[in-house]
Specification:
The chain is of the alpha+beta class. 25% of the residues lie in helices and 24% in strands. A five-stranded mixed β-sheet has the order 2-1-3-4-5. Bound molecules: 2'-deoxyuridine and zinc ion.
């Protein structure tokens, strides 16, 4: 089951579009209803416009109506190190909760399990901004 999610992230890695870094990354996110969405990194000649694999996969899921997730697996070609998501991806995951699982894998498919909370402690999330009709700026009326 989780091995299967890691395998799907490895398959997605094959689609990586990374002519600049040549660093292939794949991700597979498991929605709460059991559907899996995959993604790869998508780089751009304007380097800063590039997308990470994790955000590609999560955006595919959200754009098809899924905002509740059980787990995400991430794969790279690193042999001796577990791939570790960048800060932007950690925050992107956290938008959809802190208590879900992140499988960080090595190229041989071995993995380390961490929660979003462990990857991004003391986080800022959707519950935090106090905006809306009963507030002015940051002050609750
Ligand atoms: O967790 C990660 C780390 C890096 N990358 C991508 C971004 C860029 O395309 C390349 C090199 O940083 O790898 C990901 O997609 N996910
Ligand atoms: Zn990232």
């Amino acid at each position: 089951m989780l091995k299967a999610l890691v395998r799907k992230s490895q398959e997605a890695r094959n689609q990586a579009y990374c002519p600049y870094s040549k660093f292939r990354v794949g991700a597979a996110v498991l929605a709460s209803n059991g559907t899996v969405f995959t993604g790869c990194n998508v780089e751009n000649a304007c380097y800063t416009a590039g997308l990470c694999a994790e955000r590609t996969a999560i955006s595919k899921a959200v754009s098809e109506g899924h905002t509740s997730f059980k787990a995400i697996a991430i794969a790279s070609d690193l042999e001796d190190r577990f791939i570790s998501p960048c800060g932007a991806c950690r925050q992107f995951m956290r938008e959809f909760g802190s208590q879900w699982d992140v499988y960080l894998s090595k190229s041989d498919g071995s993995y380390k399990l961490m929660t979003v909370e462990e990857l991004l402690p003391c986080s800022f999330g959707p519950e935090d901004p106090r905006t809306g009709e009963n507030t002015v700026g940051n002050s609750k009326l």
